[in-house]
Amino acid sequence: MDQFMRRALELATLGRGQVSPNPMVGCVIVYDPEGAEPRIIGEGWHQRYGEAHAERNAIASVHPEDTHLLPQSTAYVTLEPCSHYGKQPPCADLLIEKRVGRVVCCNDDPNPLVAGQGFAKLRAAGIAVETGVLSEIGRELNARFFTFFEQNRPYIILKWAETSDGFIGATDSQPVKITGDLANRLVHRWRSEEDGIMVGTNTARLDNPRLNTRLWPGKNPTRIVIDNQLSLDQNLHLFDGSQPTIVYHQQENKVPTNHPNVIYSFTQSLNHSLENLHQRKIQSVLVEGGAALLQSFIEAGLWDEMRVFRSRMMLGKERLGSAIKAPVVQGALSSREMVGEDELTIYKNSPEK
């Protein structure tokens, strides 16, 4: 059983960066009559938001000569089949229509529009349902989706690069290139996988970033800028209208300059900004801000991952006069690897729910 669910989980990852705000879902259909060797007769995954779901793609992949085998087959699905009409019809209804014999799932769907109703439909139609298979791996796969519905905020990834002596940059207004080209390309891939990317006022002003995916094929994230005083120069790349941009500020009575594709939103706190992003269906945010913005997330406990690059270079005060200390890492070590000549360490936050 586990081998087929692992295959479904593997297929689900192929939708990464393409299906949000939907979850990544994979489906494997296995013909497994009693006393015979089970064999896969269909596979599919949710490939792109608005298009067919995993179950529909898996059933469509079954050879016409094998469709009569579906009543003696098991559909291994990584998430509860949907039970409502959205951009696609309900997958639970399709499984019932095709008389699939059994359904095995990793996780219940936390979306209130589903939340057990998919399983209830299947059982009411006489289809055997088993849940909780490799559930922890399933939750990890769709951590963004579960965080969005269970904690009512986006999944937060804090990313920074630091030198071997623990500095993140300098205060002399000169950007410092800490990591190598391979690490930079990886960051652009990460950007393509998340809904939003956030920076603070200082990073926007000093680095003038574009926050796009020019080094990796993929969609650009929504740019999110914390500019409490609305002090940023309107000629920065962030205001060029090339991709959706949200500016959070605290100037309640000040009317900002209008820009195409830029939304200005009054906010009272970091929590308030995350609530607003939740309302806008932004499920995940890669925070690439400076030390102050990163520290604000850390102190509030509002983060899920830290992705920290460490280079071999030194950036001590002797060299630049006033180097900026990197945040102190927290959480549980998840992985460590070399990316070119830079070390990448990932930490996970596991607060009590």
Describe what you observe in this structure:
- There is one protein chain.
- It contains eleven helices and 16 strands.
- 41% of the residues are buried.
- The chain has two domains: 2-148, Cytidine Deaminase, domain 2, CATH 3.40.140; 151-348, Dihydrofolate Reductase, subunit A, CATH 3.40.430.10.
- The chain has helices at 2-12, 54-61, 91-97, 117-124, 135-141, 143-150, 181-193, 201-207, 270-279, 291-300, 317-320; strands at 26-31, 39-45, 73-79, 102-107, 128-130, 155-162, 167-170, 196-200, 222-226, 245-249, 262-266, 284-287, 305-310, 323-325, 332-339, 342-348.
- The longest helix is centred in the middle third of the chain and has 13 residues, at 181-193.
- The radius of gyration is 23 Å and the shape is elongated.
- With 353 residues, the protein is α/β, with parallel strands linked by helices.
- The strands form three sheets. Strands 11-10-9-8-12-6-13-16-15 form a nine-stranded mixed sheet. Strands 2-1-3-4-5 form a five-stranded mixed sheet, sandwiched between helices.
